Amino acid sequence: MGLALPAFAGARAEAWFMLIVALLPPGDTLIVLRNGDIKAAAFGVHYATAVVALLDAALLFAL
DSSP assignment, residue 3? Predict the structure, then answer.
């Protein structure tokens, strides 16, 4: 779905999609932390993913 949006719906629709996608990694972080994994890995991987998705959405909104 993410690849079809820019082709058929445009950058603004893709930006909204990425904004929604950015909400998922913090939930993954909670799952990893509840299972007793390393905090640095949980925050480093999942929150970095959320930040990249938010930056991507911001750049797409700027188009």
Answer: T
d(CA 35, CA 49): 20
Q: How far is CA 50 from CA 8, 9, 11, in A?
A: 25, 23, 19
What is the DSSP annotation of 25-55?
Answer: HHHHHHHHHHTT--HHHHIIIIIHHHHHHHH
Domain boundaries, the chain: 4-62
Burial classification of residue 27, based on how many CB atoms lie within 10 Å of its CB (0-12 exposed, 13-18 middle, 19 or more buried): exposed
- The first and second tokens of residue 1, run together, are 């779905």
Each residue of 11-60: pLDDT tens digit?
A: 899 999 999 999 999 999 999 999 988 889 888 999 899 999 999 999 99
